[in-house]
Amino acid sequence: MDEDREALDLAADWADISQGLRKDLGQQLHSQWIKPIQVGSFCKETGTLDLFLPTEFSANWVADRFADRLSLAWKIARPDVRHVRISVHPGRRPLPELRLGGAGGGARRPANDGAPSLDTGAASLGGQEFGALVQGSVGLDPSLTFTSFVTGNANVLACNAAQRMAAVEAPQFSPLYLKAATGQGKTHLLHAIGHAYLAAHPRARIFYCSAERFMVEFVQALRQNQMIEFKSRLRGFDLLLVDDIQFIIGKASAQEELLYTIDALLAEGKRLVFAADRAPQALDGVEQRLLSRLSMGLVADIQPADIELRRSILEHRLARFAPSDVPSDVIEFLARTINRNVRELVGGLNKLIAYAQLTGQAVSLQLAEEQLTDILSANRKRITIDEIQRTVCQFYRVDRTEMASKRRARAVVRPRQVAMYLAKVLTPRSYPEIGRKFGGRDHSTVIHAVRLIEDLRTRDADMDGDVRSLLRQLES
Q: Which residue range or ranges hold the AAA+ ATPase domain (predicted)?
């Protein structure tokens, strides 16, 4: 009876935790990685809770990226949980390891992915531990370096500032505050700064953590009467890297300690880097003195990646895979369609290649459309055929009425065919529906136009340039 009650309590706690993670991660990531988790047994003697996943691949993925968040959530829900162990469900036959890395390497996180902010644990380098929770931390991800960070107009300022912060000579600014939306590469740069700084200063002491981890360490030290030790260890570091600083909102005591730590480190010429999804001035619930410290150095924005940068990131990522035949039209399709953040972009490529390897299928445009439905639908901008017609007419300087007219002059027909092609590429409309928007034309006319423009793009550089330019205008 006690075991049944314990199982029910665990199930109820997991339901609450899972619901919270769904809100934090979004429906897609939650459904793919969190929902399959099964709660196993809980050992009260060791405080260890087992979480099971159906395959070794999924267990490794979740353990690598979400272990800290799962552990923290369970500790909040049940204080007697001290360790969370993630493994394959007993009795499951492990699948062969899927190697997404290059030859001789293990699975790597995506370029510019920034290692999902949910798994930012704490790293204590230079041989010094920091608090009980740091023990066993994975530390800095070896794959997240400046070499693996792909730059473009959207992120070149932040990347240059990060490199300056890690250089041998003292930077002209401190702290550095990296501001970017989720999945745009700010955490990648934090890891890269840590690696580069350690290479330039081999004996340096580096502390890397999330704001949540900072608060956990702070509360633990407070409860255990170890605040003096906490402060001395924290202020003994040469480089402080704090991710997701927005999560320190409202924690007055932790804010005050962070404020004093910043002042102490800056007074000694130490280097500090913070990252958040919003500007310092937009951090509600943070006292003014801390806001002043966070913004007193350099605030570097990372803008959403444009299509050229997205394409470069995919090509760079492909070069790090074991040889995989991914057609250029698939790369173009992913770069054009998955535009919300870089993490989703590279995650889509990972999923596509993983599915192809596991099933023995060739990577193709059709396979991408079939297997990445959720990602693609979440990223598609609602572009209408009317908007396409208006943009094409402005681009080619023809009257809007020509889209539905019967005129067959080349100066009119080609823009009309381009508009039909774009309508098929950018909207979910069927061939007959598109035909009706172009003066009631038959679906076969639309099919002919789409195939013609596809062919012309491969043979005519000017046509391909026109289409690319129109795509940028419509998707911006």
A: 172-320
